[in-house]
Amino acid sequence: MNSSQIKHFDYIFTGTGLASLMTVYKMVLSGKFSDKSILLLDKDAKKTNDRTWCFWEKEESIWNSIISKKWDLALFANENFKRDLDLKPYSYNKINGLDFYNFVFETISNQSNITFLNEKVTDINELETHVFVGTEENRYTCDYLFNSIYTKAFAEGQTKYPVLQQHFVGWFVKTEKEVFNPEKVTFMDFSVEQKGNTRFMYVLPISKIEALVEYTLFSEKLLQKEEYENEIQIYLEKLGVNQFEIIEKEQGSIPMTCYPFWKKNTKRVLSIGTAGGWTKASTGYTFKNSDKKSTKLVEFLQNENLKMKDFHKKNRFWFYDLLLLDILYRNNELGSSIFSSLFKKGNTKLIFKFLDEETNLFEDLRVIMKCPKVLFIKALFRVVFK
Length: 386
Ligand SMILES: Cc1cc2nc3c(=O)[nH]c(=O)nc-3n(C[C@H](O)[C@H](O)[C@H](O)COP(=O)(O)OP(=O)(O)OC[C@H]3O[C@@H](n4cnc5c(N)ncnc54)[C@H](O)[C@@H]3O)c2cc1C
Prior knowledge:
Blueprint: E1 7-14, H1 18-30, E2 38-41, E3 52-57, E4 67-71, E5 73-77, E6 82-86, E7 91-96, H2 97-108, E8 114-117, E9 121-126, E10 131-135, E11 139-147, H3 152-156, E12 163-175, E13 184-189, E14 199-205, E15 210-219, H4 225-238, E16 244-257, E17 269-271, H5 287-300, H6 316-330, H7 335-345, H8 348-355, H9 361-368, H10 373-385
Parallel strand pairs: 1-2, 1-11, 2-8, 5-13, 11-17
Antiparallel strand pairs: 3-7, 4-7, 5-6, 9-10, 10-11, 12-15, 12-16, 13-14, 14-15
Bound molecules: flavin-adenine dinucleotide.
């Protein structure tokens, strides 16, 4: 194929998952990009229910119609105490991955300027006047590229910023006995054996007999699959479940790091999603952040003088996350006590607001003061004088 046969687009999205689909969907809603040609590339057809997204929110959003379940009540527990958290005015919302993909594709597939191709990207090369993209089948060029393909080696190949994983295996189970309270999500249950790590159970109950039960760790190294599954089994037994059916399984490993992914942004290439640092480093939550960042990105793209490097703005929450990760990286067994001190007496709404990076300095202090102070002061010295 010679260069005249290479198809050119205004924008190419390499990876068509959460961040790309949110961005492109909002580009369509804005009505400002109908004259731009857009190519979406993904190695996957995006036709499977490959993940369940949960996020807390106060107001209704454009995703409201695909929320399959909402909870106003959550349980936080460890081996010594249980606390019911009243989430209002927030609700904890669940969206099934496939519902999200179908919802967005239904809109974008009607746009003549947008093309989705199920092709694996093998090469991205930025040149002075354009960006070149190679797939296993074809070659393309574009003016600007948005990349959400996560390259593990970037964060994990350095030592300056600690990298933990939020890793989990979940079983969507149907039990014979009624054991779940469909009104109350189990946010974090640290009553499971910690084994030197930060380990907890996360339960999304759909009905009295159906729930997604996930064994989750915030730690550096993944476990063997059987270990997650054994722990789910033990937990179900503790709940009094003997007979159950596994309807679906999910698993994941989400990087938790303050590594500055955005430093890789260039004149024409912007990393987005987890690959762009859109994952909240201290929690692994990405949905809400991607929602906010994609809205900002769509506004940003309407600037006359587009400089991709100017998109990212660092804030003080990045630094708070860095402190927590520094502690958990060195003393992974402390997660249960840190999260417990935060949730035992802390104001849930304020914690959510803080995690959403919407608190003022005074409110930040109110949240941080609930955490073990000596640990954080020591981490502060380590991080500042590193
Ligand atoms: C099982 C699971 C559950 C999660 N639950 C939550 C949750 O409850 N709440 C929350 O906030 N976050 C959650 N997350 C974290 C985060 O929201 C998701 O990982 C989210 O999908 C990240 O969005 P993204 O666009 O960065 O990446 P993705 O959505 O993973 O999109 C990246 C895309 O790139 C494609 N790709 C990769 N390599 C190539 C290649 N070489 N060529 C072409 N395409 C390629 C992939 O197929 C994928 O479609 C969860 C993650 C997982 C895995």
